[in-house]
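Fold this: Branched-chain amino acid transport system substrate-binding protein
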Amino acid sequence: MKSLTALATLAALGLASAASADIKIGATMSETGPAAFLGDPEAKTLKMLVEKLNAAGGINGEQIELVLYDDGGDPNKARTFATRLVEDDEVKAIIGGTTTGTTMSIIPVAEDSEVPFISLAGAVEIIEPVKEWTFKTPHTDRMACEKIFEDMKARGISKIGMISGTDGFGASMRKQCLGVVGNYGIEILADESYGPTDADMTPQLTNIKNTAGIQAVLNPGFGQGPSIVTRNFQQLAVGLPLYQSHGVASKSFIDLAGAEAAEGVHLPGAALLVADLLPADDPQKPVVEAYTAEYTAKYNEAVSTFGGHAYDAFQILMQAIERAGSDDPSAIRDEIEKTTGYVGTGGVVNMTPEDHLGLDLTAFRMLEIKDGTWTLVE
């Protein structure tokens, strides 16, 4: 169990004192454990942004104190930490929920305590149906399905195989894909799955390979599973297009799968991954380039869309606090819901009382892995 406050970090740097930490926000993220490749860049991003903001004078002249806990990807710990953040730390808002599982355990705490919560996880069920105090920044799993099926349809693919993780994200995306696939005239001929600790998906992929008529394979999942699927896919010489989800949109996926195995993999992703490839007039280009430069300079590692989710959550929250002119949770909640025209790493956000995400399919870019890096699909 780990606890860290940005205030302590700032004090050590001589940039803040206890008296200047006036607005307290909380976070519970999976800095360690199986989802660390998601939670680590999220936590690093929040620390970086709080330090930068406080050094510049804070919000409305007040400093920001970040209370950050590492839940290790455990939903029970996430709920415990969320309760601690509200009851003991008395935070005014919460950012976190690295995974769908941890997010779903935090939601009841936020809703019951009436504290605004911005999730960093992908499942559409986080915001549908709309919950009064819960928001999110990542594209939903349903949107990922739709973006993938759009691409498949454009390529004349109408019959596919699917292999999904049974974790919260994988199961949710599988459900969403099954729900919308018919809208694109695509039929799923094989539907396989694997567990979070499975180390070999060869049997499932062999079943898919031996199913007549399949033209492509889709893998809803995150963590190490998709990397194993990708390696096994190459080893079996399946010889079909392989689509992954936005849940693997980090350099660590390519590293784990191996550049050779990942070559040609398609997936929907954020503009952040292809900042240098965006046209000069793209409204996201200045944002993603600035975040990329700042993060890589501070941590000497590549950015990921997951850190970008935390970037957007923090900026949306800070702008809401600034507009509210108050640290009252209810006023902050209202202003988050009014977020309009926010240009972030994930897209242009326009929230409403009926939409606590505020992104549409144009926020996704279709990507292909070539030579060990991301390229835009034309």
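Confidence is low (pLDDT under 50) at residues 1-21. The longest strand covers residues 21-29.
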